[in-house]
Amino acid sequence: MIYAVLVLTALAAGLLQGIAGFGSGPVQMMTYTLYWPLPTAAAISVCVSVPLNLSMVVTYRREIRWRKVLLPIAPYMLVCSLAISFAHFIDQALMKRIFGGFLIALSVYYLFFNRRERKPLTPMQTAVYVVISALCDAFFGIGGPLMVLYFLNKTNSMREYLGSAAAFFLINGVYNTFLRLINGIIAPQHLPAIGAGLLAILAGVSLARVIAGRVNEKTLKKFVYVMIGVTGLINLFG
């Protein structure tokens, strides 16, 4: 049963990522936390998402602005390293409720406030975006929303944004997976689940390329965001 849910979730995550360009992390975390502790669920989600970012890096490799990618990497990695190292020492029931609140906030943000506007960021805003994103990535496997805004602000075209953001998340995804391995958050018994998720998420991306023109992207996004909010309520009060 667990593998059926895992495969269907990863397939849906790849489908949404392939159609909408983002969202695989929240979709995976909707169900992974039902079967694994939050740190392990986040680790599997990030690991399974690495091929997605790799494929986007290959696709947009000529548009990547490496200076803009590498600038926030050191502080992002530092915060992730500290947070991942302490993840096992935090009360899991409390973290589950915090995660539920985070999913609700994420749902509200995407439904009502995500306009993808390019507004100049102050150095303080940039620091806050990087730190909060790194913490969310380390604890919940979802570091995207604020870093999406960061890269939209720092790039000059959609292809440049897609390539640069994918390169950033690929580097950090590989690094965070390594950190979780040495901290024992990912263990050999998780490899079959990761392998199944990798295959399913790549299948979802391939399926997205076939049906992208036949799906109402706006409706699909809204449905996913509502489900993220419902999952948040379940984690918060369950």
Summarize the structure.
With 238 residues, the protein is mainly alpha-helical.
List the helices and strands and how they pair.
Blueprint: H1 2-20, H2 24-32, H3 38-59, H4 66-70, H5 73-86, H6 92-113, H7 123-140, H8 144-154, H9 158-182, H10 191-211, H11 217-237
Question: Which characteristics define this entry?
Answer:
11 helices; single chain; mainly alpha; 0% strand; 238 residues; globular
3D structure, described in words:
With 238 residues, the protein is mainly alpha-helical. The chain has one domain. Helix content is 79%, strand content 0%. The protein is built from 11 helices and no strands. α3 (38-59) packs antiparallel against α9. It starts with a helix and ends with a helix.
Order of H and E elements:
HHHHHHHHHHH
Q: Can you give the mean pLDDT?
A: 81
Shape by Cα distribution: globular
The portion of residues forming beta strands comes to under 5%
Total individual domains: 1
